[in-house]
């Protein structure tokens, strides 16, 4: 019969009944694969990381200490050029604008969209539409917005919207280039951009204001000009294009083949003060009724002859950087919304409901509870956007025309331009690359520490 040994288990093994511990002859087993197997799998990734990341960084630092030819050692000369050359200072200024504006706008819009999508039907479809630009490459997004920002309202969507809004509240009818004939017999003259009739306005006597300078083809479909016949006590006249297509006609007289200029603003002026205003009809005639007795002069203000509103010069030197930032926001706002919405779904609903029960308004709940609880997510999104805007290249290169690219330049684009885009100075380009790396590293370290803190 086999006797059962009684005893108790100790950290060193099993203690026999007699009191002396039994020797522990088995070592604890290792969980998972061996370290050598992990090294085998990590080796290819480390090899590629070294070839594509570590070596370029080390060589860029080395190359930045030499001149454009790579033969003469210049030390920190290229880094001094970064902070003294006007073109590179412009890139630094633009990058500061990007870092200050773009991440804040993207994060704010992402937060607003994430909060609002919780309160609407078809939230998934709305999120899909907002996130869809992320599926478009920055190169394609640049091409899209290059067309959006076209100056011509017939091609550019942005200016088409602006001109539509402008024309809704203000008429854009105008005849740029129209003017009276320049001779002593002309019945009207130009005075500070306005066209003024020479003859004083008298009741019952028509005032003739013939204009030239417009191609007849531009008035195709316009009504034929008509000689005005003002009644007793009325002041009237005609404004028309005194040109007959194909030649002919009588100068300074209304002919049947000539076209009236519709929609022109006409002012009745007395002692330098505008007493009444009207507009020409389709046939170019106008009439003032009810004017007090006195001497009047008929004037066409210069607004009639200004170029119509065609929107803003989005691709000009003034608005080019805000325009490109707008394209960047369009691409990344959906990405920020998805991340913030994920953080929003993790917020305890009990805290929100308790605040509402205590009488807090929706704005108070959002400002005092939602935003503080989302602060870690918002910070991660904000820092990630900063890293992205420091490296922005594609949108600036595609959207900004060559004539204004110096005004829209950023560090990443300047690095490519001076190295490979015709500059031929890889020493300065390497210095710009190292400078950009130095700017990005602190934000990367901050994000990594933040992720590690959240894992704990």
TrEMBL record:
PROSITE patterns: ABC_TM1. Residues 92-447 form the ABC transmembrane type-1 domain. This is Binding-protein-dependent transport systems inner membrane component. GO terms for cellular component: extracellular region; plasma membrane. It is a multi-pass membrane protein. Pfam families: BPD_transp_1, SdrD_B. Keywords: Cell membrane, Membrane, Secreted, Signal, Transmembrane, Transmembrane helix, Transport. GO terms for biological process: transmembrane transport. Belongs to the binding-protein-dependent transport system permease family. Residues 1-25 are annotated as: Disordered. It is found in: Cell membrane; Secreted. The chain crosses the membrane at residues 37-62, 96-116, 128-149, 327-348, 369-390, 428-448.
């Amino acid at each position: 019969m086999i006797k059962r040994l009684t005893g108790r288990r100790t950290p060193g093994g099993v203690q026999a009944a007699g009191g002396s511990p039994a020797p522990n002859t088995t070592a604890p087993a290792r969980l998972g694969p061996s370290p050598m197997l992990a090294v085998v799998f990590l080796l290819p990734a480390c090899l590629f990381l070294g070839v594509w990341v570590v070596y370029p960084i080390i060589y860029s630092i080395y190359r930045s200490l030499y001149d454009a030819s790579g033969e003469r050692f210049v030390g920190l000369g290229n880094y001094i050029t970064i902070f003294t050359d006007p073109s590179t200072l412009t890139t630094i200024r633009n990058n500061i604008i990007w870092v200050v504006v773009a991440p804040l706008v993207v994060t704010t819009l992402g937060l607003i969209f994430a909060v609002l999508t919780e309160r609407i039907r078809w939230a998934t479809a709305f999120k899909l539409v907002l996130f869809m630009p992320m599926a478009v490459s920055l190169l394609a997004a640049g091409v899209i917005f290059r067309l959006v920002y076209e100056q011509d309202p017939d091609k550019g969507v942005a200016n088409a919207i602006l001109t539509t809004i402008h024309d809704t509240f203000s008429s854009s009818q105008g005849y740029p280039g129209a003017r009276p004939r320049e001779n002593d017999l002309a019945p009207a003259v130009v005075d500070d951009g306005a066209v003024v009739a020479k003859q004083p306005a008298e009741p019952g006597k028509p005032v003739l204001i013939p204009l030239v300078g417009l191609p007849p083809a531009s008035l195709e479909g316009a009504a034929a000009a008509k000689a005005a016949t003002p009644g007793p006590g009325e002041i009237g006249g005609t404004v028309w294009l005194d040109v007959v297509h194909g030649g002919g006609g009588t100068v300074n007289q209304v002919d049947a083949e000539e076209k009236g200029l519709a929609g022109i603003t006409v002012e009745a002026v007395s002692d330098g003060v505008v007493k009444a205003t009207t507009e020409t009809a389709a046939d170019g005639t106008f009439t003032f009724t009810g004017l007090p007795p006195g001497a009047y002069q008929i004037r066409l203000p210069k607004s009639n002859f200004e170029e119509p509103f065609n929107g803003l010069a989005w691709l000009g030197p003034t608005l080019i950087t805000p325009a490109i930032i707008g394209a960047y926001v369009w691409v990344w706002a959906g990405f920020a919304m998805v991340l913030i919405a994920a953080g929003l779904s993790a917020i305890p609903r009990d805290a929100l409901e308790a605040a509402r029960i205590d009488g807090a308004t929706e704005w108070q709940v959002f400002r005092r509870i939602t935003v503080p609880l989302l602060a870690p997510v918002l910070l991660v999104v904000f820092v990630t956007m900063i890293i992205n805007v420091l490296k922005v290249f594609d949108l600036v290169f595609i959207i900004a025309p060559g004539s204004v690219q110096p005004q829209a330049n950023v560090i990443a684009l300047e690095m490519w331009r001076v190295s490979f885009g015709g500059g031929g100075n890889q020493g300065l380009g390497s210095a710009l690359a190292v400078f950009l790396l130095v700017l990005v590293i602190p934000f990367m370290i901050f994000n990594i520490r933040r992720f590690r803190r959240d894992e704990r």
